[in-house]
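pasting for ref
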Amino acid sequence: MEMNNNNIKEIRKNIGFSQKEVAKNLKVTQSTVSSWEAGRYEPDSASLQKLADLFNVTVDALLGRINSTSSIREDTTEYISRPKETQEVMIPLVFSIRNIGTQQNTVKYIPVPTSYVSRYGRNIVGIVAAGESMSPTLSPGNYLVCIPGKAWENDQIVVVDVNDSETVKRIRRAADGGIDLIPDNKDFEDMHFSPTDINKYKIRILGRVVRSISPEL
């Protein structure tokens, strides 16, 4: 099987998955995923199909037969586009991730594919993308599907509480032990917070953005 082994890594990073998350979803070890990406050995046909389903791309994209970025099944201008599925479940669209569970915090319920629940867990919620700082990756007005919690890795998009105000930015660990919050829109400035600043401004990671859904879809 001829394969561009870099495609798995490229697509995984574009989508925002970690190797650990891929391994968990496919029920393999993280070292197996690492070996696929490094080209030490190739996934079998069943694993290829599972990877394609997980990444919402075609098997041809994983095999390098077509350009990986052109194989996304929907609008590639969005952070992660919504796949076409007939079965859907409803999740809460909330004003704030900080106040999940309170009735007044729920705006309404929105439909998402059932695969989101099996992939990300039953506690996923939606928020509305606001402002232009993450454009063109996240379009204002789109529904952002989020996994509440503190876990994150470099370059993932997270919801951050800064002085009791929520913002959505890309996150990276800084050399001084702090964090950098980075907008995808280069008209906005990066924000650096030292370890002292993190305490001063009461910075908390509230959740991770895993999908961006256009309300029109």
